[in-house]
Design brief:
Shape: globular
Strand content: 15-25%
Number of strands: 23
Distance between the termini: 20 Å
CATH topology of the domain at 70-245: Immunoglobulin-like
Number of helices: 13
Length: about 550
DNA sequence: TCGACTCCCACGTTTGAAGGGA
DNA sequence: ATCCCTTCAAACGTGGGAGTCG
């Protein structure tokens, strides 16, 4: 069915111009320490196949699959070029694509197992930066993190064969600085450093979402970290973008761009842009790599993806200091940070989850509604309560996010989660009632991870404007991307419901069934973050009890 | 005053509809 | 009627410049 979707984004990647590195070059970046993939301290039992338990074959296969998955960064050399100069990504109110775009080559998947591939972008540290003297310098403490969103690959869920067949491109991912962004783009703060992360979530319809076999892994490529800007600061980056981005071809040529400007301004002489002037003024310093001050030491953390039944999935958020996310000072070997966790049954609840049904029932299709709310950045997630929403299969949701208030709080696990207030996005019918329930957060225990059960969560309606939410509440949302043209057509009220001071109930186009399935899968999860010892990668086991398959 | 940001511009690329021919 | 190919216009993505804002 995936073949019927026409040109997928991953297929587009093959057509995309630009230097494409061979498989061999990307293989290095995968460099997942395979021998250690079994996760230090993680026994076979922890992986969900304890001897004597009669673990089914599917479970074993799933575990092997998730552990064997390798991800290679496409155009790694290009990323390195940018990284060495200090990658900057433009963020605009309307949303701007990343360049280089995030493309990966995935191998080691079970060809028949379905996976959801998604990206989130988390702060690399808690600093705000400024470009001074041709280098990035810390300019203070970071502003409150934007509501985290996830970008789910539009092909999701798809079989491993599909993902492995070709490059997986996230080139349509867009970044914005609009806090009220109605398009589902990933919201970032300007002049902050971020680290994209790739998550691969197993979504095998044989056992349905949330089954005991569900697992996921996280891949981080340090060279993809960047500083978000509203206009390029480093002329080196500008030139790299112009040279490598086909959309910027109009600016190519050493003098053409200036000459073009001159023509535009009806001048007979080239106009030296500010960036070029700045570049020339500091050209003598260019040989020296930008040196970012030592980054703030934060704690490596885990994000707990929790299912409705309380089981956890945990995404490891590497501490910048521990992981080479701070990449502007030295050209480090881009080791891959790999986090692999699984869930297994550990409780006795029996749930008939709508998400499972919808996933199994909905056909495959491609939609652009692939933005999800991602977990809040590292330490801000520590106090995040978990919740789920009462969403129907066709309802796109955006949850409120955790806010700055929770950042840096240490005794997170002992604090009750704050109340949650939600509004919702809906494409079919608006919710008439909200159900809010808090969920106890289970303290993270140092690796080897283990999953703990929590209270069952009802599904919550979702909110469209995070700003209306008390910070520190819900911290995971699913967002169906609405095309900008659609928003334009629907007018500003639909685009910015919060500006009208309304509960932000917006009409949205019906999400694709595929994405709905993915949404539901992710709806049922929530994120929280707890402290974790410094680890570059690890795997764990999630406990989900009494999932009913089929 | 200054830096960050927004808006608009022109250019190039991408996309998909429309049309024609086999 | 179907398929394939070409053409072309609209949409989209891009960095730069001017203006705005705090």
């Amino acid at each position: 069915m995936l073949q019927d979707k026409g040109l997928s984004e991953s297929e587009e990647a093959f057509r995309a111009p630009g230097p494409a590195l061979g498989e061999a070059s990307t293989t290095n970046s995968t460099s997942v320490p395979e021998p250690t993939l079994a996760a230090p301290g993680l026994s076979g039992a922890a992986l969900g196949s304890p001897p004597g338990q009669g673990a089914d074959v599917a479970a074993t296969a799933a575990e092997q699959t998730i552990e064997n998955i390798k991800v290679g960064l496409h155009e790694k050399e290009l990323w390195k070029k940018f990284h060495e100069a200090g990658t900057e990504m433009i963020i605009t109110k309307a949303g701007r694509r990343m360049f280089p775009s995030y493309k990966v080559k995935v191998t080691g998947m079970n060809p028949k197992t379905k996976y959801i591939l998604l990206i989130d972008i988390v702060p690399a540290d808690d600093h705000r930066y400024k470009f001074c003297d041709n280098k990035w310098m810390v300019a203070g403490k970071a502003e409150p993190a934007m509501p985290g969103r996830l970008y789910v690959h539009p092909d999701s869920p798809a079989t491993g064969a599909h993902w492995m067949r070709q490059l997986v491109s996230f080139q349509k991912l867009k970044l914005t600085n609009n806090h009220l962004d109605p398009f589902g783009h990933i919201i970032l703060n300007s002049m902050h450093k971020y680290q994209p992360r790739l998550h691969i979530v197993k979504a095998d319809e044989n056992n349905a979402f949330g089954s005991k076999n569900t697992a996921f892994c996280t891949h981080v490529f340090p060279e993809t970290s960047f500083i978000s800007v509203t206009s390029y600061q480093n002329h080196k980056i500008t030139q790299l973008k112009i040279e490598n981005n086909p959309f910027a071809k109009g600016f190519r040529g050493s003098d053409d761009s200036d000459l073009r400007v001159a023509r535009l301004q009806s001048k007979e002489y080239p106009v030296i842009s500010k960036s070029i002037m700045r570049q020339r003024l500091v050209s003598s310093q260019l040989s020296a790599k930008p040196d970012v001050s030592p980054l703030h030491s934060a704690h490596q953390a885990l994000q707990h993806y929790q299912y409705e039944n309380g089981a956890h999935m945990q995404f490891a958020a590497a501490e910048p200091q521990d992981l080479p996310l701070n990449t502007f000072s030295t050209q480090r070997d881009s080791s891959l940070f790999y986090h692999c966790l699984k869930r297994r049954a550990d409780s006795a609840r029996h749930l008939d989850l709508p998400c499972k049904r919808s996933y199994l029932e909905t056909p495959s299709s491609v939609g652009d509604d692939h933005y999800f709310r991602s977990p809040p950045p590292y330490d801000q997630q520590m106090l995040s309560p978990s919740y789920c929403s009462e969403v129907t299969p066709r309802e796109a949701c955006m949850y409120s996010s955790s806010g700055p208030e929770i950042a840096g709080v240490s005794a997170v696990d002992d604090l009750p989660p704050p109340p949650l207030s939600c509004n919702m996005w809906t494409s079919v019918s608006p919710y008439t009632s909200y159900s809010v329930q808090t969920m106890e957060t289970v303290p993270y225990q140092p690796f080897p991870t283990h999953f703990t059960t929590t209270t069952m969560m009802p599904r919550l309606p979702t909110i469209s404007a995070q700003s209306a939410q008390p910070p520190g509440n819900a911290h995971f949302s699913v967002y169906n991307q609405l095309s900008q043209s659609q928003v334009r057509e629907r007018g500003p009220s639909a685009s910015f419901p919060r500006e009208r001071g309304l509960p932000a109930v917006c009409e949205r186009k019906p999400p694709s069934p595929h994405l709905n399935a993915a949404n539901e899968f992710l709806y049922s999860q929530s994120f929280s973050l707890t402290r974790e010892s410094s680890l570059q990668y690890h795997s764990g086991v999630g406990a989900v009890e009494n999932w009913t398959d089929g």
